[in-house]
Amino acid sequence: MSEQFSSSVDVSGEDIHWDFKDAMSYGGYLGLERLLTSQKCLTQEHDEMLFIVIHQVGELWMKLVLHETEGGIAHLQRDEVGPALKMFARVSRIQEQLIHAWDVLSTMTPADYLAFRDALGQSSGFQSFQYRTLEYRLGNKNAALARVHKHNPPAHKMVTRALELPSLWDETLRLLARRGYAIPAELVERDWTQPYAPSEAVEDVWRTIYRDSETHWEAYELGEKLVDLEHKFQQWRFNHMKTVERIIGYRKGTGGTSGVSYLVKALDLRFFPEIWTVRTTL
User: Fold this and answer.
1) Three-state secondary structure along 1-64?
2) Residue 192 contacts by C-beta under 8 Å, 6 or more apart in sequence?
C-alpha cells in the first residue's frame, strides 16, 4: 500500500481561538506591529535589510544579556550563588546567538555593503549604549567611552550608572571576601569608575580554589561560569573583527575609529583577569 500524504493539517477537531477582537493575540503580546515595522531602509539596496535586522536582533539579545547579568549580580550580592550560576549559564547561551549572527552578516560582500554604506553617515556600533553598559557591568571601566552617548540623555544616564556601580568581577571578589577568602580590603571598597588592576593576592585566592575544587566547589563553579562567559565574549569580539575585515578590509569605521585595527585592540581586554592568569601557575 502506498503512503498517503496530506498537503495541509486538519484542524476541524481543534478548539482554536479565531476571534481576537477582545482578547490578547500573539502579535499583540509581542508588539509585532511595532517591531516588524522598525526596519527603515534608507536606500533601495537589497542587503541593507540584512544589515539592519542583524544589528537590531543583536540589540535585543544584548538587552536579554543585560537582564540576566543584572539578575546574576543581584543574586551574588545576596550570597545566592546557585541562581546566579543559572543566569550566567544562560548568558553564555545567548552569547552563542550573538556569535553566530556574524556568520549571517558575513554573507554580505564588500560590494553589497559599499552600495549603502554612505547612507549610514556617522552611525556605528561603537555608539551602542547597551554594549557599553554591558562592558561596564562586566568590568571594562573606561570612562572616556561614555562621552559618545551625551547626545542621548537616557542612554548616557544608563551607561554612567553602569560605570559607577561595582562590576560583576567586583561583586565576585566581594562575595569571596564575605566567604572568608583573603581578598585585599582595598578591592572590596574602591572607586568603581576606575579600571580594575589585577592583584597577586586575588590570583592566590583563585589558585587555592582551583587546586582544591571539591572543598571550594561553589567558588570554583562560579569561576568556571565566568571563564565561559568571557570566552564567549572574546569569540564575539573576534568574529566581529573578522567579519568587518572580510567586508571592508582596513577602511576607517563609520563611527570614526580605525575599524579593524581598533577591534583588534579589544581582543586583549580581560574582564576577570586572575581566573585566566592562574591557569599558568596551577
Assistant:
1) CCCCCCCCCCCCCCCCCCCCCCCCCHHHHHCHHHHCCCCCCCCCCCCHHHHHHHHHHHHHHHHH
2) 141, 163, 164, 165, 166, 167, 170
- Residues 269/140, Cβ–Cβ less than 8 Å: yes
CA 51, 57, 60, 64 torsion-angle sign: negative
Rounded to whole angstroms, how far apart are CA atoms 270 and 265? 11
Confidence of residue 253 (pLDDT cuts 50, 70, 90): confident
Which residue bears the cell 515595522? 37
Confirm if 254 and 124 have CB atoms less than 8 A apart. yes
Nearest to 208 by CA among 274, 273, 270: 274
Instruction: Tell which residue, 82, 32, 56, has the closest CA to residue 222.
Output: 82
Q: What is the dihedral of CA 132, 136, 141, 147, to 10 degrees?
A: 30
Amino acid letter for position 23 = A
pTM of the entire predicted model = 0.92
Reading the block at residue 238, the C-alpha cell is 573576534
pLDDT above 90 as % of the chain = 82
Burial of 251 (0-12, 13-18, 19+ CB in 10 A): middle
Provide the pLDDT for residue 13. Answer: 82
